[in-house]
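Much of our argument rests on the idea that a fold can be written as discrete symbols. This step matters because it turns folding into a mapping between discrete strings. The record that follows shows the chain in one-letter code together with its fold in token form.
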Amino acid sequence: MALTSARIRALNAVYETGSFSAAAKRLEISQPSVAQLVRDLERDFSVQLFDRRGNGLNPTALCQRLYAVTASMQERESEATRILMQHRELKEGQLRIGLGNSMPGMTYIGAFQRAYPGVQVQVEMGSWSRILNAVVDQRVDVAILPDVPDDGRFRRQVCLNQGVVALVHPNHALARRQAVSCRELANHHLIFRSAGSSTQRVVDKAFRSVDLAPRPTMILDTRDGVFEAVANNLGIGFMWEQGSSRQDQIRKLNVLEMADKRPEYVFALQNRSSVMVNLFFDVLKIS
């Protein structure tokens, strides 16, 4: 005489669907198996759980009382299974992350790995448009970028606000300045990013605001390339102010027309929630 998990699942499925066939479809077992589980339960305890009337099954008062108790038991069983599956995923899983800049993303990745050391992190880096497309195309699970569209496709959470700064070599004529204007910058060799860069969009807008369209002496497709070009004193580059943790002598100058702070977002597809993605968002809240 036993009230097994299989019998509870069969009883509840029949109660909720109203028939053995519908319950069997839900449980993905045969209809005779569902009927046998319910009959065995009735036989072992000498009770009647359903009134069989034609093709219908009506739960008895006893069945209703039993369902009220066993439904919560089944929910706890499902929760226990979820916890075990999550634990396994956290030991063996992988999280794919897209970064437009190495920072602040690497900070959050570090916090995530300290919390969940068993998870392998795979990082894709690239321009704003490349990383946005990586999320849309599901090449990455979650990403960090500024200017993420608020169009319903994405779950977004602000991680910081920052602006774009000018990068100059320590021997550059402007190196001792704290702030400069676009008109001043236009008189020097400029290093721009290629199309698709969120940094370059800010830079272009700033120069347009003072009716300037300077011709850069160099165009590079990566932020690291810009940093190296500035380090070799080839011109003035631009970068998000917290886009790198490098501690060399390159100076970061505020640009008057780029002073507005913009939000940087952690984001993922709205309809692609997962344990890993949820945990990454949770780490962001406490970092």
